[in-house]
Amino acid sequence: MSDTASAQNAAISIVPVSTPDEWIAFHAIRRAVLWEARGRSDYDESHPDDRLPNHYPLLLYTGAIAAGVLRLDILEDRNTAAIRRLAVIPVMQKKGLGTKLIKHAEVLAADRTCVRIIARVARDAQSFWEKNGYAPEPEETPDASQNPLLSKQVTAAR
Fold first, then answer.
1. pLDDT in tens, the chain (158 residues)
2. Cβ of 86: how many Cβ atoms within 10 Å?
3. In what order do the strands lie in the sheet with 55-62?
4. What residue spans of the chain are helical by DSSP H?
5. Facing residues of 80 across strands?
6. What is the chain's percent helix, strand, coil content, to nearest 5?
7. The pTM is what?
8. How far apart are CA 108 and CA 111, in angstroms?
9. Helix (H) or strand (E) holding 80
């Protein structure tokens, strides 16, 4: 069985990024999927936003393979969270891992008293977000150079 097939059948876990190896995996995924695959080379591994209080970088594993990342930021109003930089490695895309990361982030946000999540998403990913219950913000009319802002109401699990 190939490594990819093994990973597809492996247990999925989502952990807060904390160890040096987790930070390396987190940045490697973001750099490859969100920067290099889009022709960009200006990724900053030491960007301070990743380690701010109320910012939660998450790493999704399938077995021992780091396969996806997301950062959830609790915004200053404490009622809203923002999903930043969702990425899944190419060989594991279209297998529900991005949705698992989003659902985990929604629970985390609701547990921290947020009632709404926003995400500024790439235009080519907008339908994925809409399938996960996110809708364009009605007040915003982004220009062609700006990615759309989507949002979703969240409630605490009972």
1. 455 455 456 899 999 999 999 999 999 999 999 999 999 999 999 999 999 999 999 999 999 999 999 999 999 988 999 999 999 999 999 999 999 999 999 999 999 999 999 999 998 899 999 999 999 988 766 677 788 999 999 987 65
2. 27
3. 12-16, 55-62, 65-74, 80-88, 116-120, 149-153, 135-136
4. 3-9, 20-30, 97-111, 126-131
5. 116
6. 35, 30, 35
7. 0.88
8. 5
9. strand 80-88
